[in-house]
Design a protein that fits this description.
This protein is α+β, with helices and mostly antiparallel strands. The chain folds into three domains: 123 residues, NusB-like (N-utilizing Substance Protein B Homolog, Chain A), CATH 1.10.940; 45 residues, no CATH class; 57 residues, Alpha-Beta Plaits (2-Layer Sandwich). It is 59% helix and 7% strand. The chain has a four-stranded antiparallel β-sheet.
Length: 241
Amino acid sequence: MPVSPARAAAFEILMRVERDNSYASELLHAARYLKLSPADHGLATELVMGVLRWRSLLDQNIAAASSQKLAKLDLEVLLALRLGVYQMLFLERIPQRASVHESVELVKRGRKQSAAPFVNAVLRKLAQVPRTEDPILAIQSASTIAALAQLSAHPLWLVKRWVEQFGFATAKAICIYNQTVPTTTIRLRDAGVEDELRSAGLELAQGTLLTRARSVFRGDVTKTKAFAAGRVAIQDEASQL
């Protein structure tokens, strides 16, 4: 069965990041992937950046459910598992059965047909584990350096250095900041542009301070006709005052 365009793109980009040391941000804006629909490009971006941001935490979950050591897994298999686990842990809107199915299909797409049953087994095992608390809340609950590094998906040596330099509370704040997805804020320059942006696939929320400000939760505003025409601008809400 075909793989969704967003997951196929995410898989390809992550392969290039791992194999070629390519930059994910540059690949996501390559012409090949800008042809995706706004919804697919948004999901691909979320998957790629999410897997990279939480990689060590994802690997911890995979290792707990795998009968094989992660170091022995082919890269295609490991990336398919990471994508599946990321969706299970962080994207509640995606049914777990879809996460499992598409990851299995990605392994087949990566010419690792024989590993499909293994990927299916690992993800189904993890699907039976109840979702834990919000990852950011989990970081906030960390009381030791080891727990902070593990829950925030940061290298232990780096967290230790921050604790030594800045103290535990500041190190925790740094970890939380690093793992918090930044919100894009825009300024609407005319009354009708919001409906146009929503029709283009963007998910928007009212700004905190200004009636013309909106937070973008999904979609790429830079790909819209309204942005090209100058009817909307990317601008921090505070600077709009």
